[in-house]
Amino acid sequence: MAIWLPKWATDRLRRVERRSPERHCDRRPLLLIGRDGQRHVVARCCEQATGLGVSPGMPAAQARALFEPGGVRIEAHDAEADARSLGALAEWATRFSPLVQLDRPDGLLLDITGCGRVFGGESPLAQNVSASLRRLGIDARVAIAPTFASAWAFARYGQQPTLVVPAASLRALLAPLPIAGLGVESDGVAALAPLGIKRIEHLLDLPRSTLPARFGYDLLLRLDQALGHALEPFEPIRASEPVAVEREFAGPTDRIEAVEAAVRELIGAVASQLQQREVGAQAVKAVLVRADLPPETLEVRMGRPSRDPEHLWKLLAPKLERAHLGFGVEAVHVEAVSLARVRHTQALSITGTTMQCSADAERAADELFDTLTNRFGPSRVLRASLVASHLPERACELCPCETAQPRRSFQPAASDRPTLLFDRPEAADVVALTPDGPVHSVRWRQRAHTIVSCIGPERIGSEWWRSKGSTRDYFRVQTDAGRWLWLARALEVNRWFVHGIWA
Fold first, then answer.
1. Residues 73-84 as b or e (16 or more Cβ within 10 Å = b)
2. N or C: which end of the chain has fewer CB within 10 A?
3. At residue 349, does pLDDT exceed 80?
């Protein structure tokens, strides 16, 4: 079985936004922009944009010109996030077959040998897979064929979104498909087109002995793999065993001390397994199996992967104190739900001095954020995260600690920035010798200030992919009272405002 996700990147981005309460679902056409050397090109686009003439590989400026101002939504293409999501979808697909292979960047291959009888046949299995993906909000094409190469071709170039190809009809149904269905390089397809070889049936009519000399061995190999005459490598994903431990009591116990001791011991065992795998847990849950009530689940989440048993216990202990034990707990189950690589830190600097103090301080801050988040809720504890934007007001954003990016050592801009940036720039009256400075005096907050020092201008342009914005000239000025202000002039409207101050 082959599963093709033609709109994988755009579907994934929209699903992420629907899960975010801060953002609403934008119905405008969506373009994902990537880089091709020094050029910005369209990496992926939605079906609406495709209908208006946009295609992957098109220059971003040309694609944007096809829409009215503000009529298209442009986002950066995150190929790594797509790959992670595809891996998660591959693990989800193991419910249909234990053997699933990633077909990057937007497909999956499943070996369903012997699996069809579980679902009542291959056709019901294909329909079940397609319906399950639609419920997840994923647009997919599913094909079942005798070989992986042919299933790949039918999923991408077949006439039907869900297709089951019997072995007896494989050659006849494969013949009308284009040469690109064999998965050969685009240069090879372009070389065959002038010769009139556009479909697989044209290739089958040629003498087999002449194919390697004229078109190379790769084309012949892909044709043999599609017809089942050559083996095709298949590397399924290897699902790792869950990091989980369990302890059963001799009988139900309602002693909180016994339950706490068991949970703490199991947390230590989980931390030991995480240490062996060189990973950390971003979420840990403890399940109390009660004698007279349904199991109670206690879950804590961390902003950074952790395998410190003391830290995990400090997060779980307050929840365990408030747990209702009923007439007794029969068993305790502790599991690391979400795993991630632990970010290793350098112990010594290039000069040989220790860096342990900074690492300890960062770890202590992360543990504090975890404690506050699990106590007050993830939406009430926010953390500043850098954003790839040169505009001052967009250089960082507040987001939950669980989703905040790791702190980095670089600054968002090479120039000096004020320690306090106003949420809304405050209007000011400025007297300057020339429009480009230097600034002579400023009237701000109903007070007049004489300027004794002026540095600038620093020009910051608007982001070209956004419809609204203005070009600004920024000045660092020092008043006669010694305070440094960050002045800006909007060039289009010739208005001045104070955007920040240095404390």
1. bbbebbeeebee
2. C
3. no
For 150-258, where are the E strands, in sequence order?
Answer: 162-164, 243-253
* HSE toward the beta carbon, residue 329, CA cutoff 13 A: 27
Is 60 exceeded by the pLDDT of residue 293? yes
Q: Rounded to whole angstroms, how far apart are CA atoms 474 and 456?
A: 6
pLDDT digits (tens, 9 = 90+) for 252-266: 999 999 999 999 999
Q: Are the CB atoms for 477 and 491 separated by under 8 Å?
A: no
Per-residue model confidence as pLDDT tens digits over 71-128: 888 888 888 888 989 998 999 999 999 999 999 888 999 999 989 889 999 999 999 9
Q: What distance, in Å, lies between the first and last C-alpha atoms of the chain?
A: 63
Spell out a b/e string for 282-309, using b for 16 or more CB atoms within 10 Å of the CB, else e. Answer: bbbbbbbbbbeeeebebebbbbbbbbbb
Concatenate the DSSP letters of all residues of 368-423 into one string.
Answer: HHHHHHHHH-GGG-EEEEE-S-SSGGGSEEEEETTTPPPP-SS-S-SS---SEEEE
Per-residue pLDDT tens digits for 418-448: 888 898 899 999 998 887 778 999 999 999 9
Q: What is the pLDDT of residues 355-377, one digit of tens each?
A: 556 567 777 777 787 888 878 87
Q: Is the pLDDT confidence value at 350 over 70?
A: no
Identity of the amino acid at 379: S
CB 439 within 8 A of CB 487: yes
Give the type of residue at 499: H
* Rounded-to-integer distance, Cα 230 and Cα 208, Å: 14
Considering only 214-228, 255-269, 334-348, 438-452, which range has the smallest mean pLDDT?
A: 334-348
Reference 328, options 271, 269, 288; nearest CA is 288
Give me 492's structure tokens. 């289009």
Nearest to 455, CA basis, from 431, 437, 468 = 437
Name the 3-class secondary structure at 228: coil
Amino acid identity of residue 115, one-letter, is C
Structure confidence at residue 122 (pLDDT): 92
170-209 b/e (C-beta count within 10 Å ≥ 16 → b): beebbeebebbbbebeeebbebbeeeebeebeebeeeeee
Q: Specify the amino acid at residue 11.
A: D
The residue with tokens 């039918």 is 154
Candidates 125, 123, 183; CA nearest to 153 is 183
Distance CA 168, CA 172 (A): 9
In DSSP notation, 205-226 reads HS-GGGHHHHH-HHHHHHHHHH
Q: What are phi and psi of 376, to 5 degrees?
A: -105, -15
Q: What is the DSSP letter of 492?
A: T
Name the residue among 211, 215, 263, 273 with its Cα closest to residue 240: 273
